[in-house]
C-alpha cells in the first residue's frame, strides 16, 4: 500500500515537473523536491522499490532543472 502511495506522489510530482520545465515556472521545482522526498520516504517504508526509484529520478530531474535555470527560472 505504501508503494502505491509513493507511486501516486511520484505521478503528481511528474506532472508538476512538466509544469516546472516551462520557462519562468522553474521556481515550482522548489515545491516539488520536498514532495518527492516524502514519496521517497514512503517508498523506503514499503517492501517494493519502484515508488522510491521513481521519486529519486524525479528529484534528480527537478534539481537539474533548477541548476539549468539558476535556481529560480
Write the layout of secondary structure elements.
Blueprint: H1 2-20, H2 29-45, H3 50-68
Transmembrane segments: 30-47, 54-72
Keywords: Membrane, Transmembrane, Transmembrane helix
Protein name: DUF4175 domain-containing protein
Describe this entry's structure for a reader.
The protein has 73 residues and is mainly alpha-helical. It has one domain. 75% of the residues lie in helices and 0% in strands. The protein contains 3 helices and no strands. It is elongated. The mean pLDDT is 93. Keywords: Membrane, Transmembrane, Transmembrane helix. This is DUF4175 domain-containing protein. It comes from Sphingomonas populi.
Count of extended strands: 0
Compute the CA-based radius of gyration.
12 Å
List the helices and strands in order. HHH
* SS content category: mainly alpha
Q: In the residues, how many domains can be counted?
A: 1
Question: Separation of termini?
Answer: 36 Å
- Rough shape? elongated
Percent strand equals under 5%
Count up the helices: 3
Assembly category? single chain
Largest sheet: none
Keyword list:
73 residues; mainly alpha; 3 helices; 75% helix; elongated; membrane; transmembrane helix
Summary of the model, kept short:
The chain is mainly α and 73 residues long. 75% of the residues lie in helices and 0% in strands.
